Every structure is written in structure tokens, then in C-alpha cells.
From TrEMBL:
Any Pfam family the entry gives: OAD_gamma
GO molecular function, one term: sodium ion transmembrane transporter activity
Organism: Mediterraneibacter butyricigenes
GO CC, alphabetical: plasma membrane
Annotated transmembrane regions: 161-184
Subcellular location as annotated: Cell membrane
UniProt keyword list: Cell membrane, Membrane, Signal, Transmembrane, Transmembrane helix
Signal sequence interval, chain numbering: 1-19
GO BP annotations listed: sodium ion export across plasma membrane
UniProt name for this protein: Uncharacterized protein
Length: 261
């Protein structure tokens, strides 16, 4: 039983040793010289190219750009190469032209090998970092500026001053706005007074003129009077048994007391 356990432990130890050797062999398989040549070609090309040359490469079709990269011996995909051009041009615009760079230092990451070189621009010193994948194809390039402790403290102090200055300016503005609140009642009263003065009372409508009384037509009144006389005359004549020619009714007066018996 003890021999079986010892045999199992020995097999596990050998397996772990082979795994470690495999990792070292993979690390040693990278062609460092080839990657350095590729990085050097890219940096020298960018250093000698003008803005017109960069624009011309951007105008190429995928086939033209891929053919140009293959002819130059650069294992770079088209999209990655365009991104690298943008990164380099942005660094030049901010820090000036690239003057010189040193030897490459090789390191590894989980994505592949990394080449780093110390570069000197017109206005700043920086580290240029070029990333490769496991197949040794260049995938990315970045420019990292190196700041001294004094520059870092200066930048931090400037950011602090700008932040505090902005806060104080905002507080002063808010205090100024609050100080104007005391004028609001006076302004409101002034607007109310102007509104009362501007209000004009509507004039009263004139009373309609009384309608003129309509005068009764005299002809109609006289006609009613003659008809009444004729009726009374006929009634008297009938009661007396005489003719209406024997008497004449001159006028008719209404008695105050009309008690008929």
C-alpha cells in the first residue's frame, strides 16, 4: 500500500515538473529578435512619415493596406495598425516630434509579450509600449508619459486650486443671488401699483331713452263716440216707442253711482 502511494506521488511530481517545463519552453519560444525588428520598423516608419503620409495610408482600401504591411514584413492587422497610427500622432501633437528611443525591454502578460522602450520627445520623455499576441503579431502601441515627483505635485496642486476656486466662485454667485431677495417685495409692490393705475373702469352704459307715448288716433276716438251715441239713441227710441228723428243726443256722461234698480 505504501509503495502504491509513493508511486502516485512520484507521478504527480513528474507531471508538475513537465507542466513547468512546458511553460518555460513556451516563454522561450518567442522570437524576441523578430519582435524587436518589427517594433523598430514601425517606430522608424512613424518617425519619418508626415501627416500627408498618414492620411494616404488611411485612404487605402483593406487590400492595399494589407498588401503594404505584408510587403514591409509587419505582422499587424489593418485595424490595429490604424489605431497605432492614431496613438502615435496624438502623442506627437501633445509632446512634440519623436527624437530618439532606446533599447527594447521584453516582458510578458497573459495576452502575450510586451516590448517597452524609453523615448525622447521634443517636450516630454515617455515610455513607448508595444503589445504582441501569442503568435507574435503586434496588436497595440501606447505612449506613457513619465512625470517627475515635482511635476506630479505641481499638477495635483493645480487641480486642487482649480477645484477649490470653482467651488468658491459658485458659492459667491449663490450668495449674490440670495442678497437680491430683499428687493423682491419692493418690485412686487411696484408691479401691483402699476397694474392698478393701468386698470381703467369701463364707462356706464347710457340708459335707454323712454319710448315716446303713442298718441291715440283722434279719428278712432271720434268713431267710437259716434257709435256709442247711435246705440244709446236707438235704445231710447225703442223704449219710448218713438223715432230717432224726434230727439238728438248731444253728449254722454258717465255717472259716478251706477246703481241700477
Amino acid at each position: 500500500m505504501k509503495k502504491k502511494i509513493s508511486l502516485i506521488l512520484l507521478v504527480l511530481t513528474m507531471a508538475l515538473g513537465l507542466a513547468g517545463c512546458g511553460a518555460d519552453e513556451k516563454s522561450a519560444d518567442y522570437d524576441t529578435q523578430s519582435m524587436e525588428t518589427c517594433a523598430d520598423t514601425v517606430l522608424q516608419s512613424f518617425q519619418t512619415m508626415s501627416d500627408a503620409d498618414f492620411d494616404m495610408l488611411r485612404s487605402y482600401s483593406d487590400f492595399q493596406l494589407n498588401y503594404t504591411l505584408m510587403s514591409s514584413g509587419l505582422p499587424i492587422a489593418n485595424d490595429d495598425f490604424l489605431i497605432m497610427m492614431d496613438s502615435y500622432q496624438n502623442a506627437v501633437k501633445e509632446y512634440g516630434e519623436l527624437i530618439d528611443y532606446g533599447e527594447f525591454e521584453v516582458s510578458e502578460s497573459k495576452d502575450g509579450p510586451i516590448l517597452t522602450t524609453k523615448a525622447e520627445f521634443e517636450n516630454k520623455d515617455a515610455d513607448i509600449v508595444l503589445n504582441f499576441d501569442d503568435e507574435e503579431h503586434m496588436t497595440d502601441m501606447s505612449v506613457n508619459i513619465k512625470y517627475t515627483i515635482g511635476q506630479i505635485l505641481e499638477k495635483a496642486g493645480m487641480n486642487t486650486l482649480i477645484g477649490m476656486g470653482t467651488v468658491f466662485l459658485v458659492l459667491i454667485f449663490i450668495a449674490f443671488i440670495i442678497s437680491l431677495f430683499r428687493f423682491i417685495p419692493a418690485i412686487e409692490a411696484k408691479f401691483k401699483g402699476n397694474a392698478k393705475e393701468a386698470k381703467v373702469e369701463a364707462p356706464a352704459k347710457p340708459a335707454p331713452a323712454p319710448a315716446a307715448p303713442v298718441a291715440e288716433a283722434p279719428a278712432k276716438s271720434e268713431m267710437d263716440q259716434s257709435q256709442l251715441i247711435a246705440v244709446i239713441t236707438a235704445a231710447i227710441a225703442a223704449s219710448e216707442g218713438t223715432s230717432t228723428d224726434g230727439f238728438i243726443v248731444r253728449s254722454i256722461k258717465r255717472r259716478k253711482n251706477n246703481n241700477w234698480k
